[in-house]
Amino acid sequence: MAAALAAPSVTAAAARPHWRELYVGVPLAPGRALEGYVDLLYRGDVGLVVVDYKTGPAGLDADLDGLVDRYRMQGAAYALAVAEVVFVFLTPEGAVERRLPDLSQAVAEVRQLAATDDERLVTT
Questions:
Q1: Which H/E stretch holds residue 37?
Q2: 86-122: per-residue pLDDT in tens?
């Protein structure tokens, strides 16, 4: 979709080393691992950045806080495994980017959920 190509994070990724649809896995505890695929990973100014595409609402001015909260554990899992995370919500009017608020707290929650084998870590 053209909206994704115009997103600031995707534009930044195109100008740097980047990888698409990349498998990522990280050990969390003995016998436990967190693994999955990221849509786009690129080398940012201060480290690696995960870009995750999401179908967005009908327009650019929509309140995305609820959607960002919905994907909070997924984003925190990416951050735990790799680095910074950017959600790119694709709308008919264009792309809108959001980062997770309180990322370190969300990452701590992912570690706790992983320790108890909580099914809330299964994301799409």
A1: strand 32-43
A2: 889 888 888 888 888 888 888 888 888 877 766 665 5
Q: Give the integer Cα–Cα distance in Å for 62 and 18.
A: 29
Spatial separation of the C-alpha atoms in residues 62 and 110, rounded to whole Å: 28
This prediction has a pTM of 0.73
Contact by Cβ (8 Å): 117, 34 = no
Burial class (CB in 10 A: 0-12, 13-18, 19+), 83: middle
Provide the sign of the torsion angle of the four alpha carbons 27, 29, 31, 33, taken in this order.
Answer: negative
Q: What is the CATH number of the domain that holds 60?
A: 3.90.320.10
Domain region containing 16: 2-121
